[in-house]
Design a protein that fits this description.
The protein is mainly alpha-helical. Helices cover 67% and strands 0% of the residues. The longest helix has 30 residues.
């Protein structure tokens, strides 16, 4: 099963090697009807290879397999690229019609690069970092735009994004949320419905049927929609955390840490944008 985020199409780790996301990971308490609970190396090509050689599974660090350090370092590179792009765009592109055009163009390029990576079977670091760079330019311009109208909104949005991410990780690590196949199906159904409703709302606004942004207005309704979007972002984070955890447990190749970084970056961008709108809405109503 795929672990997804806003583009809804990012592939799981090493599908062609037999690893396909979080639904095959061994979990405590699932021995009945779960062959992986009885044999944690079943259907895991990396562990089977070790066993066939007459040796216990080797540590990821010595076999070229993905580790948490790999995920952290790749995520730092990807998020750092986003941050550098945003800072440069903020500093070099004053708020104007031209900068808005550049922001839209950067967002389109970032989307195209993300989609190309999503349909590839292996991670391509150049595509991922390119996505991060153009996404950073887009975020820098819109952040400056929001800051010009609601001073301090980007800083508050960054703090909000960090708070949501930390709270989601805490809840996940504490076991209060169990990422199962059923949990993922329900969450993805809600997420797809949300995106479809937002697409219809955008069309209604474009054709003048809905006024003041419709569901995305800067009023109470817009705030409710924003909160739902942030909760969906937290849902995507739990899928990302589970996929990373299972990728490490099942010995996904080291280069697939780039997929983890790619997914986390897209999810955090989603949360930041929604948090920025929410801060603006609450600031407008003060």
């Amino acid at each position: 099963m795929r672990s997804s985020n806003p583009v809804f199409s990012r592939r799981g780790f090493s599908r062609d090697n037999g690893y396909a996301g979080f639904n095959t990971a061994p979990q405590a308490g699932y021995a009945q009807g779960n062959p992986y609970a009885q044999n944690p190396y079943a259907n895991n090509p990396y562990a089977q290879q070790d066993l066939q050689q007459g040796a216990p599974p080797q540590a990821p660090a010595t076999t070229g397999r993905m580790t948490m350090d790999d995920v952290i370092s790749r995520s730092a590179m990807t998020l750092g690229t986003v941050a550098v792009g945003a800072v440069l765009a903020w500093a070099l592109l004053p708020v104007s019609t031209t900068s808005y055009g550049l922001a839209i163009g950067s967002a389109i390029i970032a989307f195209v690069l993300a989609m190309i990576q999503s349909f590839k079977r292996t991670p391509v670091p150049a595509l991922i970092l390119g996505y991060a760079a153009f996404e950073g330019v887009f975020l820098g311009v819109i952040s400056e735009m929001y800051n010009s109208q609601w001073s301090g909104a980007p800083f508050q949005a960054v703090l909000g994004t960090m708070a949501v991410s930390a709270a989601t990780l805490l809840v996940y690590r504490a076991g209060w949320i169990r990422v199962t196949a059923r949990y993922a199906r329900i969450g993805m159904a809600i997420a797809i419905a949300f995106v479809l409703v937002m697409a219809v709302n955008l069309l209604l606004v474009a054709f003048g049927v809905a006024e003041n942004g419709g569901l995305r207005s800067f009023g109470p309704l817009g705030a409710i929609v924003g909160i739902i979007a942030i909760l969906l972002g937290a849902f995507f984070l739990t899928l990302d955390f589970k996929q990373i955890e299972d990728g490490i447990a099942y010995g996904a190749p080291k280069n697939e840490a780039w997929l983890a970084a790619f997914g986390l970056t897209m999810t955090l961008v989603w949360i930041y944008i929604e948090m920025l709108r929410l801060v603006a809405i609450f600031s407008s109503n003060d």
